[in-house]
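Weekly modeling sync, notes
Attendees: S.R. (lead), two postdocs, one rotation student

Agenda item 3: backlog of single-chain predictions. S.R. asked that every request posted to the team notebook include the full sequence so nobody has to chase files. The rotation student volunteered to paste the first one in as an example of the format we agreed on. Action items at the bottom.

Example entry:
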Amino acid sequence: MLDDLDVASRLLPMLRVVCDDLPIPISIADPDLDDTPLIYVNGAFEALTLYRAEEVIGKNCRFLQGRLTDGTVTDEIAHACQRRAGDSCCIINYRKDGSLFFNMLAIQPLRLDLNRTLLMGCQFAFRPTQTGGTLARTCALIDRAQRQMRLSSRISADDINLHDTFRIDTIGMRFEAAFTRVKNALIRDNSSLMAQGSSLRRREALGRGGFAGRDQSHIERLLG
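Predicted structure, as returned to the notebook:
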């Protein structure tokens, strides 16, 4: 098993190479540390939230919450983090300057070995072309559409228009491409990041996801 105290220092060089230049806001949290603190954020995350990395590393992501943030959704996110499980949602978050945004969030586990998992988050500030009358209802409609799409079920025309549906689908594909890019980097770097054992088992643990096995050029086109 990886040394818990050393995991951040082991991973940070690889994360910087893989994630620093991504246009998608990326955050990595460690659920094995108290309060699931962030251990890495990229430049796009800083640009989205207006927080510098040194201001948020070591903190739980709840600093993005505010008056209109739905506590039911944050509880669901916290539960997913406790289970080291993936989740996706739309939630009202707040930048450092107090301005709010509809945060399309997706979380996936990064399994380092059989007993060690980090959580990777992808964010996107979604600007809907159709609103639900209030900020809270608009966010709830985006959230429901995102969840229905994740489950491959039909989105009601009453919930969100076709243009926004297409945009949500495209963002979801870019999230999957980002997750796969990081997972593939972990696989390539497994000689130093993973416990000794069967290479096949480790690849199976890391390789799960919608883009597993896809051509790398296809992934990079989605992220470009």
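Discussion: group reviewed the output briefly. The first helix runs from residue 7 to 19.
Action items: rotation student to repeat for the remaining queue; S.R. to check formatting next week.
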